[in-house]
Amino acid sequence: MAALVSEEKGGVCIAQSLKIPREPRPGEFDKIILRLLETPNARAIVMFANEDDIRRVLDAAKRNNQTGHFLWVGSDSWGSKISPVVQQESVAEGAITILPKRASIEAFDRYFKSRSLSNNRRNVWFAEFWEENFGCKLGMHGKRPGSPKKCTGLEKVGRDSTYEQEGKVQFVMDAVYAMAHALHRMHRDLCLGYPGLCPRMSNIDGKELLGYIRNVSFNGSAKTLVVFNENGDAPGRYDIYQYQITNRSAEYRIIGHWTDQLHLNMNAMQWVSGDSSVPASVCSLPCQKGERKKVVKGVPCCWHCERCEGYHYQASEFTCQLCPYELRPDQNRTGCQPIPIIKLEWHSPWAVVPVFIAILGILATTFVVVTFVRYNDTPIVRASGREMSYVLLTGIFLCYVTTFPMIAAPGVAVCSFRRIFLGLGMCFSYAALLTKTNRIHRIFEQGKRSVAAPRFISPASQLVITFSLISVQLMGVFVWFVADPPHTVVDYGEQRTQDPENARGVLKCDISDLSLICSLGYSILLMVTCTVYAIKTRGVPETFNEAKPIGFTMYTTCIIWLAFIPIFFGTAQSAERMYIQTATLTVSLSLSASVSLGMLYMPKVYIIILHPEQNVPKRKRSFKAIVTAATMTNKLSQLASERPNGEVKTELCESVDNSSEYRRLLF
């Protein structure tokens, strides 16, 4: 039987166990070698086989070009015999074998050398040994046919032939003495001085005799103590040999011995090509750091190395464990380390562009405010509704300013400012615009029914309505502060990539998407309502009010925020979510503010600065005249699509009062 062993932590385990068939077929030993090569790193082969099978295994290794690959370890059946390694010296080089530690018994040598055909007739095999030992034939009935030489009977062992004491003579003698000592003690205990075999020993119980044998203790033929352990084994005493080749001569050399423990002379050992370093024999190479062992079933010294993947680290030799959520594996995957925390930096391109737009917007808004304050009493500023204009400009300014707390490093103060300013700027802007468009709508709707002006159209009333709408937003923010005080969180899921090396924790304010929708939802509601009123007042003549510029402003703003929604929420699963959403939100706020600033105030500033000649008071018109002109214009627009050109003008002229005031307003 051949067994493949590999070393693991100073011990020995079996990687493969193969049987040599009792009657091997051709090619059987080649198959054994190929099987052993399935674990190429396990090179040490322990063989318990007879010398013929040992020779066949060595020959198969030589045929398969494995000279020097295997490290042979032979039992005492190999020992120091020459026959297994004849013409296999290079393959067997470095083989380690054992033989029981033995001593030559001189008394046996004297006895055996004195044996002859005349004094050893009781041994029926002695005549055959005599012929074989001296190479002669005993008479006509000899066992050695064809031998030309006849035995004289005067030959002498050791003188006329080569003689060497068999190595196991010592153990045979000790075995005989052990049986004798056991029977002696058994006779002493059972027969109590009775001479000869007493009746109690006439039928000896084998188990009882075995107990006496295991309890014997005496000095053997080699003056060594003969005892047996509880398993019936004698103490192991072995000489350890190594088959070495030096100067083209091969021989077995003693490199150590075993007597209760191993004594090995490492300096005396020699391996292939004269190398003195001990070669390695392992079934599987040690796993690298961050890899776990997946042991092959039934073979504890063979395993596959599996790397701990993802966010797993090597917790032990055989297991990988998942790192806590806020940690990731270190470089060697032998432990966990904190995931780096990031935030939106001011120098990031995602921040530079929004900040640049916001700064331009703040400068432009400041310029408009300064211009309006300086020319506060001019007709254009007064006609724009100074009070509502300043409220609207405040909202535009806040929309631009919101960019900075949205990009600043999150903290309790920054998170508080984010909650306050996130919807406040839009609320200021659209509350003012809604109040304006609602005022225009009510004026012209009232004018169709009566010449009396509607209620709450004075500047003070408009401010009260506007700040009432704004207070709803502030009340919502206050409730938000009470229900969920502002604080920061680290979101490890936003940038939790498949590769832990790229994983990052995002420091952010604890503002969920739902909270964001609620914060902006009220402002968007104001924006939509304002857009509805802008549509309703789209037919009012541009000469009399800001309905059309407000309408264009709201249409453009709606387009901006309609584009914002898919971009903002469509990137929720992106690794760049924080950057994209922050940039999208701040740019959308700045663009909506820029639209309001550009369409409502830049034309006025243009006239105030570059064309002051147009900034003069015009003749006042009565409320009735304004409403009548607007009504006639709407009717003219409707009939123009239904009647020929001449009929439209004729019908309108007939329905209008003949007063010169109305004719001037219409034409």
From TrEMBL:
Gene3D superfamilies: 3.40.50.2300, GPCR, family 3, nine cysteines domain (2.10.50.30)
Transmembrane segments: 350-376, 388-410, 456-483, 514-535, 547-569, 589-611
GO molecular function: G protein-coupled receptor activity
Keyword Disulfide bond carried by entry: yes
Superkingdom of origin organism: Eukaryota
InterPro entries: ANF_lig-bd_rcpt, GPCR_3_9-Cys_dom, GPCR_3_9-Cys_sf, GPCR_3_C, GPCR_3_CS, GPCR_3_mGluR4, GPCR_3_mtglu_rcpt, mGluR
The entry's keywords: Cell membrane, Disulfide bond, G-protein coupled receptor, Glycoprotein, Membrane, Receptor, Signal, Transducer, Transmembrane, Transmembrane helix
GO cellular component: plasma membrane
Topological relation to the membrane, as annotated: Multi-pass membrane protein
Subcellular location: Cell membrane
PROSITE patterns xref list: G_PROTEIN_RECEP_F3_3 (PS00981), G_PROTEIN_RECEP_F3_4 (PS50259)
Residue span(s) of domain G-protein coupled receptors family 3 profile: 350-624
A Pfam family this chain is assigned to: 7tm_3
Main location: membrane
Protein family according to the UniProt entry: Belongs to the G-protein coupled receptor 3 family.
Designated name of the protein: Metabotropic glutamate receptor 8-like protein
Organism: Labeo rohita (Indian major carp)
